[in-house]
Specification:
The chain is of the alpha/beta class and 135 residues long. It folds into two domains: 1-85, no CATH class; 86-135, no CATH class. The protein is 16% helix and 23% strand. The protein contains three helices and eight strands, in the order E-H-E-E-E-H-E-H-E-E-E. It has helices at 14-22, 66-74, 92-95; strands spanning 2-4, 28-30, 46-48, 52-56, 80-84, 96-99, 103-106, 120-123. The strands form three sheets. A three-stranded mixed sheet has the order 3-4-5, covered by helices on one side. A hairpin with a 3-residue loop joins strand 6 and strand 7 (103-106). The radius of gyration is 16 Å and the shape is globular. The two termini are 18 Å apart. The model is unreliable at 1-11 (pLDDT under 50).
């Protein structure tokens, strides 16, 4: 998991980092990006699995530059980095949801299921109306 700028966040901002580390996750601190001063946490820009990191395209144009930094941070760890562009929805988390250990719930109208390689895919029924993001 990559977080940016948290070292300079107010004291309440330190609680998420401690909680994440308490779960056994490691954090990688990225250098601050002056053009993204409100991006304390880098989120929605990558889905990281053991064998692949999928870098997404944020819906807000003002955040799209974050993805290059995230991709650069993941590459040296041996991840194969892929860019994914959902269509018809704002976020990747609206188009699909990972179900451990090897399954993905996907709305194929919003993202190509083959993007995710060997994962087993469950397609959302086409009769299902669009709703909130998949948690």
């Amino acid at each position: 998991m990559a977080l940016s700028g948290l070292r300079t966040a107010p004291v309440p901002g330190l609680k998420p980092a401690a909680a994440i580390q308490a779960l056994g996750c490691s954090l990688e601190w990225l250098p601050p990006l002056q053009q993204y001063p409100d991006s304390v946490f880098v989120e929605d820009t990558a889905v990281v699995l053991a064998e692949v990191a999928v870098v997404t395209r944020p819906g807000a144009a003002s955040r799209r530059g974050e993805t290059a930094t995230v991709a650069q941070a993941l590459g040296p760890h041996g991840y194969r980095v892929e860019k994914v562009r959902p269509a018809g929805c704002l976020h990747l988390k609206s188009a699909c949801s990972f179900i451990p250990p090897d399954m993905l719930l996907v709305n194929p109208d919003w993202i190509d299921p083959s993007t995710f390689g060997p994962l087993r895919v469950i397609s959302v029924d086409e009769r299902e109306p669009p709703r909130r993001p998949i948690p």
